[in-house]
């Protein structure tokens, strides 16, 4: 397509809800979509696969408030790993579909590599803007309203530690036992747990006997709290790359002072 035509074409509008895990992105996206004619597109690179609903903390059907969710559990866990480039394609198709029906696409999730790949006008799959000297693109192909749900790390860390216990009580280890075999043949297809950048921490927290609680719950809690730090670093990198539209929204304002809840993701 001629670049002049592409530049002059009206851009679709997208609300982008960002933030570390546990800050309330899913709840905020569902709340917004009940007040506006909107549909939600998941941008969590693990929740995009089916299964492990407890471990990946997917928003449950009754919590979705009747709002359509796209790319949430849509791919088989043994499917070839979805890359940022592939996500860019399937999520762009979802945005076009939602916009064509005069509804507002709301992008919600914590995988910032997916968010960056989707939103930038020119995406280079060979570069990594979050490592080394590669720069974060500042040209966007959509009109974006960024909502970065921010919460102090002390509050978030305390909540995530409690959430590990809640997930264990809800049957996370039994769920993991069906998907993860630490001694399986390396030639077999990998499950979504092993594809995840959380996989090494799963192996450390639950070694060899996934049907039992880890001897030291603190280890599992520390591993869970490691992810938000990486997510926040990537958001700051995008914000520092002149995506100045990324502005923090206080978590207490989003949740009306209630603090993190079971719906916070």
TrEMBL record:
Return the InterPro entries for the record.
Dimethylallyltransferase, Guanylate_kin-like_dom, P-loop_NTPase
Among the GO biological process terms of this entry, one is: tRNA modification
Q: Where is the composition biased (Basic and acidic residues)?
A: 188-200
- Every copy of the Guanylate kinase-like domain together lies at 12-87
Keyword Transmembrane helix tagged: no
A GO term from the CC aspect = mitochondrion
Keyword Transferase annotated: yes
Molecular functions per Gene Ontology: AMP dimethylallyltransferase activity; ATP binding; tRNA dimethylallyltransferase activity
Region span, Disordered: 188-225
Keywords recorded for this protein, A-Z: ATP-binding, Cytokinin biosynthesis, Nucleotide-binding, Transferase
Family label: Belongs to the IPP transferase family.
UniProt name for this protein? Guanylate kinase-like domain-containing protein
Q: Organism source for this protein?
A: Vitis rotundifolia (Muscadine grape)
Source organism phylogeny: Eukaryota, Viridiplantae, Streptophyta, Embryophyta, Tracheophyta
